[in-house]
Prior knowledge:
The protein is mostly beta strands. The chain contains two helices and 52 strands. The model is unreliable at 1-23, 351-358 and 362-380 (pLDDT under 50).
Amino acid sequence: MLIAFGIILQLYPFMAGATDPLLGIRDVRVNDDESFFDQGRADWFVTEQGYIYMVWEDFRETYWSIFFSRSFDGGRTWGDGDGNNNNDINVVDDPTGLYSHRDPSIAIASNSTIYVFWQDSREGPWRIYYSFSKNGGMNWSASVPLGGPEGNQTEVISRVVNGTIWICWLQELDGGRGVYMTHISNNGSLGEFFRVDTRASEKAGLFMASSDKEVSLFWEENGENRTIRWTSLREEMLFRGEAEGEQILVQSPNTGYVADPFASYDPHGNLLVAYEQESYGMLMVYYMIIYPDGVSVGPYRIRTPSLNVTYQADPSIVADSGGNIYFFWAVGEDVNHLIKGGWTSKVGEEATDVRIIDWTIMMGPRPTEPQYTYAMMARGETSAFLVKDAPLVLWEDSRDDPNPSKPEPENSDIYVNGYPKRPDLPPEAVSLTVDSVGWDRAFLRWERCMDLDFSSYVVYLSIQEGFSPGPAFEVARVERRGVTTINITDLEMNTTYYVRLGVEDAAGHINLSEEVSFTTPINRPPRITLISPLEEITVDREVEILFSVFDPDDDAEVTLYLRKGGEQPPGEVVGRFREGEEGLINFTLNTSSLSNGTYLLQVVASDGVNPPVREDFPLITVYHPPPEPPRYLNVLTVSPAPGSSDIPLRTIFRVVFSREVDPNTVTTDTVLLNVGETPAEADLRILDDNVTLIVDPGVLLPPHTDCSLTLLP
């Protein structure tokens, strides 16, 4: 510890107390109450101008109420800005002092109206109430019940998405608790109430983080295995009251538990989550990163560089625009309760392994075994946030405890510390490999960049070894973190190239990979192998054509041409096969529409680099035989016989053929009955023997009239 404090004093000579506008603030008490009453469970809201608005639960009036203060100088002074930290304001209108008002949360709408929410006992069960101020917190409205389902409402928390305030809380239900939400519009109207989780269970530790696009909710859930669950809701889902269902973020080990989730979004939309985990009697803290594309990494342990640590708990985590991650957590060292802080700019390393500053804050000595649960700071002993891209942390401090000999403090105050933003370091370089090389292209692959302030991958290419990358050598830029491959095309064959991959962050810093090289091969021409037919053939309708094309560079286009003898090449295109489809090719040539003659079928494979390769199939003769002449049927007998006279007026004609007749050919077009010179209708049918035709006029024939029966082929 002496060495650590020596480093601290060397880097931060103000550690003992006073503020320095260039280096940060140290040990500033937020509340103006100097009596021995508790203040705690603070929540905050920071505006774009860097103004901090804070609320907390306060017992100074001998009942739990909600107090408010503000800072216009980054946390150095609070209240009316005279440097004396005064003018704490009671937000709650409870003149009786008979009820408890606890666990506040604060948010500011886009119209600058400040809202404070808390859980309130005036109705019997805990219910969510709120108050608002339209003049910067100097005056507050009457307390208003939020409403919602009946039953206890606890652990309210509010956050802002694009100027709209979203409120969530734990709602008592049959079988446990559920997570509910609603919102407040700029005109002060409440939105619909809707439920976020899918099952009632024992829940605690509710926390919500927000960006300009979404909110993410986290809570502890007790069951056979204690877990931290979470869900994310985009802005459009919030207004529709839709939830996609919760997921398990982390599950407790068999011998312990996980608890106290804290989360924040950084300026680039990355979601940072920290939590505590107990295993085999040891309490430790961990963090995870969830990127905007849904990929998560971690958990990684946050370590305290000390051999005397008895516990680590209640972590908080934020990251600035430069990708620096700041951690704060509670620590027990011997009999001391401390708040420690550290930072890293490299995701995935444990916090003590790289560039850590041991920011240590004494919370007050305890003569007995440390009890880390006595201070509950805004869902944990620490709560970190950014003010103009620099980290601040608030905590509950017992240094002014009137009776420090007791194991549990009798007094606590809200303190804040601020730290200067760390330098914006270049992103970590990633390794680059060449997966495959063609005559005019190369496929590159690289590791995913884990830096929070990632902006793009930049591919630099040169034919000079040891070149210095710059805009003139940039051939590609990839702005999606999850895309880690690219196909570089339009290269020259038989050429050696040198390539480096730059990782660029949001500030324009670039870190380069090692230089790798590759040589493009010479483009080799394709080869055609004819398989069938291999000799001249004569066809009438269809013929199967079979051949293969092998192209070492996989860039050939294959075309089939057909031309009649005597015509100029190349002829008519009858088949085309796109790049990558070469190999064994089976093609059916339909010759039914071709005229009789001799044809030449040619295969052409072209890769666009080498001269086209051509192969001719043996000649194909197309011959369509002439149609057969019509075949006439031989008539054996006709009844009545031709030339008969005095036939009955009701006559049915019978014709017997020498061979079977297709019934489908017996129609009024092939069998004609004439009465006199007029065609007459008749019923035509072939008997089952398929040789006898019956012609039935169906009516009486006129007397003394010639009748004729004509059979057409």
